[in-house]
Amino acid sequence: MDSSGPGDLRESVTLGVEEEFLLLDRKAYRPVGRGSQVLAAGRRRLGAGQLVPEISQAMVETVSGVCTTAPQLRTELVRLRESAAQAAEEWDCLLLASGTSPIGRTGPAAEDDPPDVPSLREQPRYQRIRQRFGPLVRDQGVCSCHVHVGIPDLGTAVAVVNHLRPWLPLLLAMTANSPFWNGTDTGYASWRTVLWRSWPTAGPPPLLRSAEHYEEVVQTLVASGAALDPAMVYWYARPSRHVPTVEIRIADVLPTTAETVAYALLVRAVVRRARAAVQNGVLPPRVEQEALVAACWQAARTGVTGDLLDLIGGTGAAVAPVMQQIATARRLLRPYLPDAGDRVLVDAWLDRLATEGGAADRQRALYRRSGRLEQLVEHIAVADPVPAAGPARTAVTRTALLASDQEETT
Questions:
Q1: How many angstroms separate the CA atoms of 212 and 128, rounded?
Q2: Cα 209 to Cα 205: distance, rounded to the nearest angstrom
Q3: β-pairing verdict for 307-309 and 319-321
Q4: pLDDT value of position 386
Q5: For the chain, what percentages of helix, strand and coil (3-state, to nearest 5) are there?
Q6: pLDDT value for 5
């Protein structure tokens, strides 16, 4: 039984989503350092705050406005993806929604790398990060999806994050979308997670006693040099430093808008459940940090097709199939999805995971059918709604549009 109780679900809980994308040359299908040009082109359609730079010149990031309903969020994400894809098209790029690039390296390049590896973004902050962390910056051009859920104050946000900790491995397993990297199948469902885990502050958040304890830990990390500033505390779930939200940053970027919307709605349900537990005085589960780290590695390794430490089902250190845990999550979260339309979207996504596997499984299936990573890239590129003239580009765009249309209807 869920002892937290759903509480008052009539309250509108805000959502925001940040999505990171790769820029690949349309002909070579390799990462290309045209981020500054694509940003300039995209900002003619979007505000500067909605299309932003990332650490590698082969990346851009979209930032949604504040939304409260699924239709709002879907409209916003479709608009952002279309605008970013159009901007990429202007500079002869494909926009790729994958945690890593199947072909080539996304950078940032090291000094001894060949010139075709995209460089570090020329911004003072990124330059300071390279000065501090040196070769660690190399190949950190990887793409994730961050979901912000509205929480009114820091104390509540810290308490909610404590309750989110057991959910993080399952959320990662469900969203893993980076099996290929630099021309090879890594054997992982989320190679992005493995690369990103190199940062000294990346990983699951610790169990925190209070807002004051949170600030102490953050300041200790900054004082140690492990973080340049509080924004570099790269926990998989954390209180936001600039808006009144909890930020869940465990996921790879998802292939389609439909999946991103469903994932964001599911995350909001997890946060609602956690907030109800906090309001009812329920203590957070005491999940050992080592077990949480191990479970996140398991999730990155196998995605939805493997087994995972069962941290949400109350079975302690027992291992259970991810699909079984998804069924448990569906049952636990249903009371926190009060809108019937939200339930339909989330159920459709979870059903798809059960029948087709996760995004990483679908990437591998596409590769097995074609035998060519170039064709995989064509299939998973974000569709440009206004394609350039020319038979080769038209064929690629039609392939992407067909795949996108099919996924959006499920």
A1: 28
A2: 12
A3: antiparallel
A4: 56
A5: 50, 15, 35
A6: 63
Question: From CA 44, how far away is CA 217, in angstroms rounded?
Answer: 41
H-type alpha helices, 189-339: 191-196, 211-224, 257-279, 289-302, 322-333
CA distance 373 to 376: 5
CA-based nearest residue to 173, from 62, 271, 263, 268:
263
180-181 and 237-239 strand pairing: unpaired
pLDDT at 392: 35
| Token pair for 62 | 């979209």
- Cβ neighbour number for residue 63 with a 10 Å cutoff: 19
Question: Looking at residue 315, what is its pLDDT?
Answer: 54
Q: Which of 190, 321, 185 is nearest to 251 (CA)?
A: 190
Q: Residue 251 is inside which H or E element, if any?
A: strand 245-252
Q: Packing angle between helix 154-164 and helix 211-224, nearest 10 degrees? A: 80
Full-prediction pTM beyond 0.90? yes
Predicted pLDDT of residue 4? 56
373, 183 contact by CB (below 8 A) = yes
Q: Where are the alpha helices (DSSP H) in 3-58?
A: 35-42
Angle (CA) 234 239 241, round 5°: 80
Q: Report the amino acid identity of residue 223.
A: A
Residue whose tokens read 């079975």: 315
Residue by residue, what is the 3-state secondary structure of 350-389?
HHHHHHHCCHHHHHHHHHHHHCCHHHHHHHHECCCCCCCC
Q: What is the mean pLDDT of each run of 10 residues along the chain (410 residues)?
A: 54 93 97 97 90 97 97 97 96 98 96 94 94 96 98 97 98 98 98 97 97 98 97 97 95 98 98 98 94 97 96 79 96 96 98 97 96 95 62 31 31
